[in-house]
Amino acid sequence: MPTFSNFWSSRFVLNLITMRKYNSQALLEGLQADIRQLVLIANKLRSEDPGVLLEQPAPDKWNVLQVLEHLNSYGRYYIPAIEKSLQKNKPATEFFKPGFIGDYFTKMLSPSEKGTVRYKMKAPKDHRPSPHLDHQPVIQTFLSQQQSLLELLEKAKTKNIGRIRTPISISRFIKLKLGDTFRFLIAHEQRHFVQINNTIVHVKKTGTFSVSL
Amino acid sequence: MADIDQLRQFITASFSLKGEELEQLLKIWQPYECKRKTILTTAGETERYLYFVLEGIQRGFYIGDDKKEATIVFMYPPSFSGIADSFLTQTPSNYFLESLTACRFLRTSWKQIDELMNLYPEIRKMVLVLTSFILKGLLQRQVELQCFSAEEKFRTLLHRSPHLLQLIPHKYLASYLGIDPATFSKLLGSVRI
Asked: Is B39 part of the contact surface with chain A (CB cutoff 8 Å)?
């Protein structure tokens, strides 16, 4: 999450100017395609040596399973929250216009075009997993959460993703448009898959890992 | 030719569907496009769509727990595409479907096909004929995988679909034939056509 100082940086002002309107269907289809890419990579991680997945690149840095478990911890909040918000009966509209905050979060979390992470952040306390994790259940949970997200995105195609709002995990008083909740949640996952890629390359000390986004 | 006429031509050439049933079947398709290397279906996901390929190539593949990846099928125009078993049974797919090039499709959903099959016996029959030929092809391929030498597999592929050699990365073709990529390039060098 952004700190107060960079919240008001020029990038935030720039964001107000560069916000665009999306075709709702195309946006949701695009997000499904993004998730499918992560599912493919996570399936490749299943056959990775558990030792590689458990090795921390530095004492204060996460191993691959911690990164996945960090994502799982957000899924455990957001998937039921989105499910609940989708019960609202507001039919789909052709276009979706992001909200200021949702768009800002998404752009800040998204990896750059070159596939690098732009702003370093520190995870909140509840979302810092222990380094001692069992690889199969962590990866399995991640995969089944992605299947749930794919289904929720499918369901969202029939709903108004600009009118339905979902409370964010740190405060139920701040609600984002459902379209933005999906966008920032998936941008967050992509960001951490850049980290997973870097971690594996570092741990194996060889060339590149074939999980590029 | 308009996209839907390509589909009409494909169906009338391959199946005996006509009249009201044909018109009803042609009504349920929407255009869909994707870039190259787009995952259309993942393992664990139930195939929602039946595609008719207008442009581009897709591959279906399996990822095992032991770093093994197997390419099991290629699809290119004019033909149907999608993970067939998952689509027909509406159970989770064991396979991934991805585009190897930019693709253009017409696509329809299981729900729409299912409704038409319940209304029109002729459409149900067409789906049965289609799946029967898929089954026939798969059993033939099973024989080729088990009985043919690497060179025979390679020659059969060259004979049946020579254009694939230019269109599909050779590592995927080697995987499809169940032969080593190095053996594949050796054969390619020796069996000049």
From this structure: yes
Q: Determine whether the interchain pair B42/A154 forms a contact, defined as Cβ–Cβ distance below 8 Å.
A: no
Which residue is associated with the tokens 């399936």? A43
What is the rounded average pLDDT of the residues B123-133?
A: 96
Q: How far is B189 from chain A (nearest CA, A)?
A: 28
The nearest alpha carbon in chain B to A33 belongs to: B39
Amino acid code (one letter) for A28: L
Distance CA A40, CA A204 (A): 20
Which residues have CB under 8 Å from B94's CB, separation 6+?
B43, B62, B86
Among B32, B35, B39, B62, the strongest candidate for a mutation testing the A interface, having the largest count of A CBs within 10 A, is B39
Nearest CA in chain B to A46: B65
Cα–Cα distance for residue pair A164/A84, rounded to 1 Å: 10
Q: What is the mean pLDDT of residues B99-120?
A: 97
Q: What is the ipTM of this complex?
A: 0.86
What single letter denotes the amino acid at residue A102? G
A160 CB-side CA count, 13 A: 9
pLDDT at B68: 81
The C-alpha atoms of residue A174 and residue A172 are separated, in whole angstroms, by 5
What domains are defined for chain A?
A: 22-204 (1.20.120)
What whole-number distance in Å separates Cα of residue A73 and Cα of residue A67?
A: 10
Report pTM: 0.88
Please say if the pLDDT value at position B79 is more than 70: yes
10-residue block means of pLDDT along chain A (213 residues)? 50 65 95 96 91 92 96 96 95 94 89 80 85 92 97 97 92 90 96 94 73 45
Give the mutation candidate from B45, B59, B103 for the A interface (greatest A CB count, under 10 A). Answer: B45
